[in-house]
Structure formats: structure tokens, C-alpha cells
Design brief:
Helix 8 packs parallel to helix 10. By secondary structure, this protein is mainly α. The chain has three domains: 51 residues, no CATH class; 95 residues, Leucine-rich Repeat Variant; 66 residues, Leucine-rich Repeat Variant (Alpha Horseshoe), CATH 1.25.10.10. The longest helix has 24 residues. The protein is elongated and about 70 Å long.
Length: 261
Amino acid sequence: MRLQKSTKGPGRFILCAFCAFLWLLSTVSFAQDLTPAQLEIQKQQQRLSSSDAEERRDAIMRLGSMRLAAASRAVLPALKDVAPIVRATAAKAILSLEPEESAGYLLPLLTDKDEFVRRETAYALGKTHSRSVISALSERLLNDKENGVRGAAAIALGQIADEAAVVPLVQTLEQKRKPNVFVLRAAAAALGEIKSRAGTAALVSALSNEKFDSDVRREAARSLGLIGDPSATSALKAASTSADPYLSQIAYEALQKLSRG
């Protein structure tokens, strides 16, 4: 009768220990091949599976601060995190990807159920400078129920600085709904960043509207100076004698810019 060698006992234990040693050796060797940045990404990526939302948020902030595409890519799953604060933090942390790529990942969050997420996403989209998001930002500017989101969308459109955003920005200044200072000021400032004369008439109207908050009128005057359209001269001259010293100074400086052509 042929005897079979038993796989039980000390021999099997030694074999398992040896296999574990080889695995550990290969793991250590692999880790030694990683750069410090890769090791940090790996470390923070592991923290993203934590049950603590604050720890996940901290990991995302650390990844975002690395300003590396690989770090931003590690953050992508967090865009669907259950915690709004984590999703909002992730929106800014993926901006080290190529602009069009990050814009594509961010767009779905612009309709997130949470106001804070939508707002932070709008700010992040402005930093991509991508023309592909103008339509979505314009829709938020005109229709979002929260003024914080609308104002963020206006600021983002100003950062992108494309003439395609002029119409919704003008519509915002002319809307009949109860005006919000933050939204109106952001829209006026964005028109100045775009520097299109198509926004002049709306800005002149805002500047001349004494019912508007002083901050809105000041921003309108500043933007008219940036645009440099001579048709704004009369309105700026009138504003330069305003009892508001800040408005009068800004209007005067805008006139100086117009005179220099």
C-alpha cells in the first residue's frame, strides 16, 4: 500500500508561514517602489472607506491639496458620498484633472438635492473655465430656488468669461422677482469680467436704479469701466456726484478708463 504524505502538522504550518513571509516581502518591495506622493495617495484613499464623514472629508482635503491628477482621481468615488459635506468637498478636490474631464464629473452635482453641494459645485465649475458648462450654470442662475446657488453660478460664469453668458446675466439684473443683493452684485461683476458691450444697457440701468443696494450700483459702475463702452458716460457722470463716496469714486475711476479708450 502506498502511503500519502500528510499535509497536517508542523510541516504544513512551516509551509504557510513561508508563504506569508513571501507575501510580506513582496508587499514591502512594492511599497518601496512607490513615490512619497503615491504612498500618500494610497494612505488617504484608504481613509475614504471610513464610517466617519469627517475623516473622509479630511482625506479628500489632503488629496485635493496635493494638486495632482492622480490624487484628484482617487477622490472621484466621493462625489457620490452619502454625506453632503463630503460631496461638496470632493467637488473642489478633483480640479487637478483636465478641465473638461473635471467639468464632466461635476455637472451631475449641479442638480444635487443639497444646496451647499450645488453651490460649491458651481464655484468649482467656474475654476474649470470650461465653455461646456455655461448652459448648466445659466440654468442654475435663473432657476435655482436658493440665492446662494444663483450667486455662485453668476460668479462662475464671470470666471469663464464667455459672451454666451451675457444674456442670462442680463436677465438676472432685469428679473422682476424680489432682488437679492448677492445675486445682483455677482451678476453685475460677471458682466464686467466678460467685458461685452452687450451687457452695457443692463449695467447702466442697474447703476441708475436708486432702489438697488449700493453694493450692486458700485459693482455696475466698476463693470462699466471694465467694458469701456462710451454710451455709459452719462450714467457714470451722474454716479460720480453721488452722496455715496464709494460709488462716486468708482464711477470717477470708470470714467477715467473710458476717457483713455
